Amino acid sequence: MKRSKLSTEAYIKGVLSGDRIVLSRAITLCESHKPEDVSQAEEVLTAIMPHTGNAIRIGITGVPGVGKSTFIEAFGELVTQKNKTLAVLTIDPSSQKTRGSILGDKTRMEELSRNPNAFIRPSASGSALGGVSSKTRSVMLLCEAAGFDVIFIETVGVGQSETLVHGMVDFFLLLMLAGAGDELQGIKKGIMEMADAVVINKADGDNKSAAKRAKVDYQNALHLFPKDESGWSPKVNLCSALEKTGLEEVWGMILKQQDHVKQSGFFQMNRQRQQINWLKENVSELLETAFYQNNEIQSVLEGIVQKVEKGELPAMNAANLLMRKFLDKK
Ligand code: GDP
Q1: What separation in Å is there between the alpha carbon of 101 and the centre of ligand 1?
Q2: What is the predicted pLDDT for the residue at 189?
Q3: What is the pLDDT of residue 96?
Q4: Which listed residue, of 170, 187, 212, 282, carries a Cα 20 to 30 Å from 271's Cα?
């Protein structure tokens, strides 16, 4: 059954009053690609803008199996016990080949999903990563307008999505395991470099002493990186998401970092910069879409691609040629 559409005012009122059902529907609206939805979503976002920006935005990443969902359940529980409301958003770069979801199954974070102070929302899967990232920012703003104090954005630690998440949060937390080499963990140096904290999970049972050794190794490794612009030196913590230990320290550390960056002025500057980057990302995305949907381009693209493929036309020339066609300067 198709639900009747809400009016723009109903979306705005519902979101601002923290109505979860309306919030969910507003998120769906913002994720939609239909032109009429896009313009309604724009109106809703414009109206809620003054009510956004008040949450602590935390990015959480780590390779599959590191314990992200277990950590988010346990850490999320702790955050809500501190009288904070929490929204958990996930960016799941669905496999382009299989269209399968990496974060996937619906049973993840079952406990947290029953917590009245938590709200969990997976990203719309199947779209291009850039699109997902842009939409996630809108979803984050909607959640802030709905009054959530803390936002977790979860992503799989395997590549490009980390850079995108790092570009929309105030704190970037990297979950790691002891005993597995970095290569094994699939974590690129660049991701380590973005982290405000490395949290070594599964520091329990037989794994405890290995975790302590790994802590020293990571601390040494982090010292080798150039100092972060924010002036914050990344920390290494141990925790067990399963036994719920070390989580209080992680929360304390995040609050400390927040104090630090707010006092130094980095917080505000970073948020402003993130907004500008969001604008630029959107412009690139819109341009690319317009380019490939352009009739003129569509009629010549295949022939030009073939010429490039056969080595008859340098790629650079091909790109210039296409651009001239797009801009109508033949
Ligand atoms: P994700 O793929 O990163 O979301 O990882 P999961 O949260 O699904 O965890 C993967 C596996 O590691 C599951 O079997 C968890 O029970 C286990 N696990 C997660 N956290 C811990 C921990 O702190 N200690 C131990 N021993 N196992 C854990």
Answers
A1: 18
A2: 73
A3: 44
A4: 187
User: 1-50 has which fold?
Assistant: 1.20.5
Per residue, what are the HEC states of the chain? CCCCCCCHHHHHHHHHCCCHHHHHHHHHHHHCCCHHHHHHHHHHHHHHHHHCCCCEEEEEEECCCCCHHHHHHHHHHHHHHCCCCEEEEEECCCCCCCCCCCCCCCCCCHHHHHCCCEEEEECCCCCCHHHHHHHHHHHHHHHHHCCCCEEEEEEECCCHHHHHHHCCCCEEEEEEECCCCHHHHCCCHHHHHHCCEEEEECCCHHHHHHHHHHHHHHHHHHHHCCCCCCCCCCEEEECECCCCECHHHHHHHHHHHHHHHHHHCHHHHHHHHHHHHHHHHHHHHHHHHHHHHCHHHHHHHHHHHHHHHCCCCCHHHHHHHHHHHHCCCC
| CA 240 to centroid of ligand 1, rounded, Å | 9
Does position 93 have pLDDT exceeding 80, yes or no?
Answer: no
Query: Which atom from ligand 1 is nearest to the alpha carbon of 240?
Result: 23
**For the CA of 64, the nearest atom of ligand 1:** 2
Determine if ligand 1 sits within 6 Å of the CB of residue 201. Answer: yes
- 100 alpha carbon – ligand 1 mean position (Å): 21
* 52-264 shares the fold of 1-50: no
Q: Where are the domains of the chain?
A: 1-50, 52-264, 276-328
Ligand 1 atom nearest to 70, measured from its CA: 7
Any ligand 1 atom below 6 A from CB of 68 = yes
For the ranges 10-14, 180-184, 189-193, 274-278, the lowest mean pLDDT is seen at: 180-184
Q: Which of 68, 69, 70, 112 to mutate to test the pocket of ligand 1 (most atoms within 8 A of CB)?
A: 70
Please tell me the predicted confidence (pLDDT) of residue 12: 98
What pLDDT band is residue 157 in, cutting at 50, 70 and 90?
low
Q: What spacing in Å lies between the alpha carbon of 11 and ligand 1's midpoint?
A: 38
CATH architecture for segment(s) 52-264: 3-Layer(aba) Sandwich (3.40)
pLDDT at 59: 95
Task: Encode pLDDT of 218-228 as tens digits.
Answer: 888 888 887 77
- Kindly give the distance from the C-alpha atom of residue 65 to the centroid of ligand 1, in angstroms, as a whole number: 6
How high is the pLDDT of residue 99?
A: 46
